[in-house]
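Appendix B. Chain record.
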Amino acid sequence: MASSDHTRRIEQGKQGLALLPSLVLLAIEGEDDSFLASAVQLIHDGLKASSVSLMQGVKGQWRTLASIGKPQPPMELLSETLDTESTCTDGDWSAVPLNRPNRAGKVLAISMPSPIAVEELDSVTAALDLADIGHRAHIKTTRRSAQLEAILEVTALWNQSRETDELLIQIAEASTRLLGAERATIFLPDTSGESLIGKPALGVEDGMLRIPVGAGVVGKVMESGEPIRVDDDISDEQQQINRDVDQQLGFQTTTLLCVPMVNSQRETIGAFEVINRLVGNFTQADQDALVELAHHASVAIENTRHVEHLVTTQTKVADEAADGVALIGRCDEIEKLKKTIGRVADTELSILITGENGTGKEVVAQLVHYLSSRRGAVMVAVNCAAISETLLESELFGHEKGAFTDAHQARAGKFELADGGTLFLDEIGDMSLGGQAKLLRVLEEKVVVRVGGSATIPTSARVVAATNQNLSELVRDKKFREDLFFRLNVVTIELPPLRNRGDDVMLLAEHFLDEFCKKARRETPAISGSAKKQLLGHRWPGNVRELRNMMERIAYLSEGETVSVEDLAFIDVPAPQDSAIALNLSLSAATQQFQVEYIQRQIDNAKGNMTDAAANMGLHRSNLYRKMKQLGMSADDG
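Structure tokens predicted for this chain:
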């Protein structure tokens, strides 16, 4: 008897076994949105049933997952099956729970034209159950793999963003693509903490949506720190949607998924919301993916805000530094120079700054830097005269560890440090010929190679050079490379000596005195008339630097409310080519002495060639001889 019952159960279970291979194949190859419909169709055809429905009970309401044939199964039958977790019948209908214990609330209901054995019904349901479990595992694995790949790709791009608004748009676009949603918005508190700002918000002016803290689903997520899902067929959940926002956006929200955004300190900093899934409702897998996206988005937003803060700080520092650099003066030469700097600063032209020591060549280089688009980057200054030839290459181009005896670690050179900014090469005329050749190669190829290394390192540093020497003469004397001279000398800015700038002396004196008195925390004294006369009559061999140093001494050491002549401590060093004419001579005698010294200096400069000396003075050689004879000078040019 027992054997015959066992045989009967096997026979009645064959239908489920027959359907299992097809269902398993469908589970592996079928799409997520079509698997259940195809599975129900297979069962319907295999059993020759009148109607087959796969139902799911959610919060007291029944949702049809897939159905073939009509009418729908009785709701009382479905509820009884779900409650008892056993097979139940009602007329032609039989219902069996899936996934026992039935946490998913799924029930398979079948209407047959003739009665079906419970064992056969159980076998079919078991086959569907196995296929459903396998399909969900397959889809979960496939989707998770695709999501992880996509998340890795998009988060790599997010961390390259330097502006928060641009980043929020990238995050929203990536999340709608990954989760198959219509729209996405990131909500972050405003500075007052009383409102939440949602970006991007399509259909709103400036693309920014403002809602009160605590309003709607977003507010609840922010307060609780827990995700919320709203399905389109659950009326209780639909009531959570803030319809005021829908009205403001001119949009209809049907499904919604919102998760909290948590920073590295585990603080909720915002909410990440996606709305209107393109197919069906948002799933638990969607929620898990959005939680992960929100985590990466929080990190990216924190990083971007930090970068924005650094950029803002850097810009502020650059602005303050630029405000502290000024070319003081109103004489014609300085006004022309200011216009030239304004025209060439924001170009890539090579600039050569010439002038005597102390005239302000570095100030001009700083102005060129701060008036250019490179002002946010660094300006690196190198005094070529202060670096020995053996160290110059290492200083400019860097070196690798072990490149020479004292190279205990690798070190970047000045070209690398100034990448994107400006490299100021002061006293370029004192650079050795070997150093000049290497500098020319870098300027031409835009790459450097560290000493002891072989890798080429790109550099976009702009080179501004300066010298107090006559580079043309150095080129003629073979002390400076001609090709480097023409490479550097695209634009020449020549600074006049202070003695030729007239009233600029007083402008500079008052500027420096006021600047140093502020640092010394004292009132700025007035400069007396006699002191002004002395300042204007001085030759200023040290140029602006000498004047600045004098005003610094006065600011800290002088007493009283007025700067007198006694406070002026001139350091009168005669210039090499200046004549020292005694003040006790008459004008006629002083004029004659000046002419004698001037002619002799011209002859010396021409190395005794009287024709060249006469030409330099705008005279014919015979007229020069005549003038020398009148002055009592020897006319022998031998």
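Further analysis of this model is presented in Appendix C.
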